[in-house]
Sequence to fold (140 residues):
Amino acid sequence: MSFCCGASMIGVVGTLKHQSVKVHHVPLLCCPVCNNIVVHPAVKEEFDLVVEYAQEDRVKEITLRETITPEMLVEWKEICVSFQGDDAENVIREQIDHSLDLLSTAKILNDIDWQDDLKTRLKVLSARLKEFEQHKESSK
Ligand SMILES: [Zn+2]
Fold:
């Protein structure tokens, strides 16, 4: 599990620019709080190789996986609590539930730093959820 800002990061398939090579269809892990982004550990080695080859061939833009199957998504999801598909709102709800669970664990452990991280996280996530709800309200 990859942790950042007190809890697990969110999986997402996206584009990442690395050493001036733009790579598409990369499973990434991103932190919903500080927006830190890392390549999913399951493809890290493959990603580095692809970038290396692209640099040798002077290719500026490549695609890591031509097709992404549901099986891949299941595998990638194993490491993170949420994987962002089309339902971003649901992911935020999942993350809030998860953070609340962790917060009670942090309280039992008396881990003040972790509690603070989680409280900040919950603040950011609830603000984002509110935005979604307001957006829904206004598009009715
Ligand atoms: Zn973070």
The radius of gyration is 17 Å. The first helix runs from residue 44 to 56.
